[in-house]
Amino acid sequence: xxxxxxxxxxxxxxxxxxxxxxxxxxxxxxxxxxxxxxxxxxxxxxxxxxxxxxxxxxxxxxxxxxxxxxxxxxxxxxxxxxxxxxxxxxxxxxxxxxxxxxxxxxxxxxxxxxxxxxxxxxxxxxxxxxxxxxxxxxxxxxxxxxxxxxxxxxxxxxxxxxxxxxxxxxxxxxxxxxxxxxxxxxxxxxxxxxxxxxxxxxxxxxxxxxxxxxxxxxxxxxxxxxxxxxxxxxxxxxxxxxxxxxxxxxxxxxxxxxxxxxxxxxxxxxxxxxxxxxxxxxxxxxxxxxxxxxxxxxxxxxxxxxxxxxxxxxxxxxxxxxxxxxxxxx
Length: 330
Prior knowledge:
The chain contains 8 helices and 13 strands. The protein is an alpha/beta fold and 330 residues long. It has 2 domains: 2-118, 3-Layer(aba) Sandwich (Rossmann fold); 122-281 and 318-327, Dihydrodipicolinate Reductase, domain 2. The strands form 2 sheets. It has a 7-stranded mixed sheet, with helices on one face. Strands 3-2-1-4-5-6 form a 6-stranded parallel sheet, with helices on both faces. Strand 9 (212-218) and strand 10 (224-230) form a beta hairpin. Helix 1 packs across helix 7. The longest helix has 16 residues, at 289-304.
């Protein structure tokens, strides 16, 4: 860490690269020293950053990469970075292919570098509180969860890159893209279901992947859940998770408790409002608080040799669930 700062190289130059760079700017002991892009493009908000065509061309000392390339290309950059002895922080989903994910995990293990994934919703707002209550069985016997991730993406979004809306590179539609964060949150809260059945379709956009669909999860303990995910629901709505148990119910909207009625257990937060991200046409992320949190943890994981909060193995579980959604259509 030259000059006492943890130094990152960003791989990829799209919207999410702007988010990561903005987050790193707010962390005192971190900085971005360059961007790798095959086209030599730079993130739109940071035109003065040094740009390189290949990772091996970077002439600055650096500690880690943040992978912001399209989903199906994540493994390529991760394996290359690991071979150079650089730690890897990867945007969600970790990748779209389980064999590729295994190769990422193995490359990082063999080269003794850390692999973290930014499923930051686990640590957003009220979600850590709910996780503790679930683990302590404070919410009672949970028998149903309804998860709704109804976004809207316009044609400009799908036309912004040739890979958008493709199985080969995107890996699918909203279930592996926009809803990926909340499927990961579901997995973190409740574990993997033992049965999945889904119905997906393309209703509004001229794309090969789904833009709307619904899923039923069932668990060995009898819990039944539903998930709806969409980029076709105009104008876009806050993500919502409804949790029902024999003690009552609670509702999270964009990670904030908006309804609490659990017998003999007061609302553990005093928050009354919902954050303003509505799931509308833009994919931009303005609030970087959760990214900052995970980046700080990643730096600490490297500095003090512990696992990042979200490891490659953990993120693989989420991809496995999502891929099964695509495989179990009726």
